[in-house]
Amino acid sequence: MIRKALVLFSGGQDSTTCLAWALTRFERVETIGFDYGQRHRIELDCRGVIRQEIASRFPQWAGKLGEDHLLDLSLIKHLGSSALTEDRAIEMQANGLPNTFVPARNLLFLTSAAALAYRRGLDALVGGMCETDYSGYPDCRDNTLKALQVALSLGLDAPMTVETPLMFLTKAQTWTLARQLGGAALVNLIVEHTHTCYLGERGKRFDWGYGCGACPACELRKNGWETYRQT
pTM here? Predict the structure, then answer.
């Protein structure tokens, strides 16, 4: 059976690595992004550029890269405020989670992606969720996503696999995986064209890419890069 995948593709480091991972394993790969009222659109703007770069730099993947989809999930912003949907300081909350946590975001992303995948004859969802280097988000945990995989497959009455290749990798190991998948060309593409910064800062270029250099996402990416460069 020819397997086809839908990659949850934000335009960040992790989802770009996952896209490359999927292109090495599936015969056809489509991508999906979500406009959920995030405080900046820079990642969304990066998505098209990254897809073009992958198609031009990696001819072995170009023929597998299918359509891109962008869904409006702005209802997420109306379900409650967070530091990812409003211009506010990033800080810890009383429940021990950072205020960058958007409740049920990944659950809504995957459920919406599964509906689209079903319609398009795709039988796998690929996401960059990770519980090794993460901010404590409960919807990034392996058990959460395994439970959702079961629910989606039952609800669709069709197998729907949720693949999370980064689940147990550190950020340094994610850089290493990118190198293994696409060599220096993919690592350079990720450095130059992906965006992860929570504040949407793209004015300053570091060794590891663009960002403010101080938010939790930048710190994680920077520390992972420094460890990766030592290997």
Answer: 0.90
